[in-house]
Amino acid sequence: MAVEKKIHPEVKSKLHPRSKHRNRYDFKKLIDSFGELEPFVKPNKFGDESIDFSDPKAVITLNKALLKHHYGVENWLIPEGYLCPPIPGRADYIHHIADLLGESNYGNIPSGEHVIVLDIGVGANCIYPMLGSIEYGWSFIGTDIDPIAVENSKLIVSENEILNGKIDIRLQSNPKDVLYGAIRVEDRVDLTICNPPFHASEEEATAGTDRKLKNLKLQKGNKIEKNFGGKNGELWCEGGERRFIRNLIHESTKFSSSVFWFSTLVSKQSNLKSIYGALKSADAVEVKTIPMGQGNKSSRIVAWTFLSPNQQRNWRESRWNAG
Predict the structure, then answer these.
(1) Stated pTM of the model
(2) Cβ(265)–Cβ(255) under 8 Å?
(3) Distance (Å, whole) CA 147 – CA 157
(4) pLDDT on residue 209
(5) Which of 289, 261, 258 is nearest to 276 (CA)?
(6) What is the CATH number of domain 85-197+237-320?
(7) SS3 of 287, please?
(8) Residues whose CB is less than 8 angstroms from the CB of residue 242 and which lie 6 or more positions away in sequence, other chains included
(9) Distances from the Cα of 261 to the Cα of 98, 101, 191, 249, 252, angstroms
């Protein structure tokens, strides 16, 4: 029996208004930009052109097409088994956090290479620095505890002329540190971003993958693979998201005058109470929660600063509006 064709909204209204991904994927244009996508595009059960999102190769190839078509990234590759991020959600973080900087600058989003953003846990995909650099011209520092991830992100930068000189990838030599060793004495960072490990154990991460694949209607008996990949440090850490963010907050107090805004994604709403408690104990001057939503999933960004209103004004004038 034929499945009735699904009616889709014209615009994905939950995505940020400046997102390049608010409309449904135009596979014809994506294939025109990146022909290697064509073999993966087939009608789904509703008769719509799509890819098999349970197939890691299809997901990676879609990302390559999106990056080339929308952002001009010619060469993007990740080692086998490493996290392949869903680009629309990553772009949303960048746009929302740009708005946060704009709110701190009389409504004008600071842009250009003099704006420095630290990506904590850049991974092998280098996705946040790529998007932020291309969309707003920002300079990035990307840190990671995984040497392979660091080398691959460096390779992505070197292989794309539009990224050269704009992204500094650093190995975090102590895996227990978040900001120590990542921010140097001379650094002034306008913003930190972070997509922390979600799970508290490898078993929990595997169970989460199984649920995701079940939701994608992977047939019983097929080999289970992480369709978006992910190594241990990318998917889980001891104590999970809550402990990681509390450690980030604790360390952020030591960099209170060298960073304007600290921020992190918070996937689990149940962790917010603990995070707000830690921020109160740390004497954060200002805390903001920014809601995000992609499809059926809801998330949020929590951002905080230790700068007083006077310090914020001096920062604006000296770094964003000088000259």
Answers:
(1) 0.87
(2) no
(3) 16
(4) 46
(5) 289
(6) 3.40.50.150
(7) strand
(8) 268, 271, 274, 275
(9) 11, 8, 5, 12, 10
Do 165 and 140 form a contact (C-beta atoms < 8 A)? no
Write out pLDDT tens, residues 233-243. 544 456 689 99
Handedness of CA 163, 167, 172, 178 (dihedral sign): negative
Which residues on adjacent β-strands are paired with residue 264?
A: 302
Number of helices (H), then strands (E), in the chain = 10, 9
Q: Rounded to an integer, what distance in angstroms lies between the CA atom of residue 143 and that of residue 182?
A: 6
Give the strand order in the sheet containing 139-144.
Answer: 167-171, 139-144, 116-120, 189-194, 259-266, 297-305, 286-294
Listed residue (41, 21, 147) closest to 85, CA to CA: 21
Angle, vertex CA 260, rays to CA 186 and CA 239, nearest 5: 95
- Domain regions of the chain by residue span: 85-197+237-320
**Token reading at 233:** 């440090």
Contact (Cβ atoms closer than 8 angstroms) between residue 102 and residue 126? no
**What is d(CA 241, CA 99) in angstroms, rounded to the nearest whole number?**
24
Contact 31, 41 (CB under 8 A): yes
Task: Tell me the mean pLDDT in the region 69-96.
Answer: 95
193 forms beta bridges with: 119
* Structure token pair of residue 133: 């650099």
Identify the CA nearest to 19 among candidates 27, 31, 11, 28.
11
Percentage, residues of the chain above pLDDT 90: 75
Q: What pLDDT, in 10s, does the model give residues 166-181? A: 999 999 999 899 999 9
